[in-house]
Specification:
The chain is an all-beta fold. It is 0% helix and 56% strand. The strands form three sheets. It has a four-stranded antiparallel β-sheet with strand order 5-4-6-7, with no helix packed on it. A three-stranded mixed β-sheet has the order 1-8-9, with no helix packed on it.
């Protein structure tokens, strides 16, 4: 998910959407444009293992932000939120939350 400092969905900057990506062992395995209503993307049904989740946008700092995640069980869902200080277009923080799949 992409959010601004007030926890509002941040779908794009200057009309350009964010791009999300998923890597494993340094190799790109999936890419998805951030959804324009909820400012999220989903990579479903991943096997147990270590991944890197990231977002990219040419008009923010840094242009590429990444977050390592580990799926430890088949029923785990890892939610990653990239929070930007919107007026300055700067990454504020990255939040991770692990939940059980319903």
């Amino acid at each position: 998910m992409i959010r601004n400092q007030a926890n509002n969905a941040l779908t794009s900057i200057d009309g350009i959407p964010f791009l999300s990506f998923l890597e494993r062992n340094g190799q790109l395995i999936a890419e998805e444009t951030i959804e324009l209503i909820y400012a999220d993307a989903g990579f479903d049904d991943l096997p147990i293992g270590e991944y890197t989740v990231g977002v990219w946008h040419e008009r923010v700092e840094p242009p590429k932000a990444i977050c390592p995640v580990e799926i430890k069980a088949a029923d785990e869902v890892v939610l990653v939120t990239f929070v930007y200080l919107e007026p300055e277009r700067v990454l504020l923080n990255i939040q991770r939350l692990v939940e059980k799949r319903l």
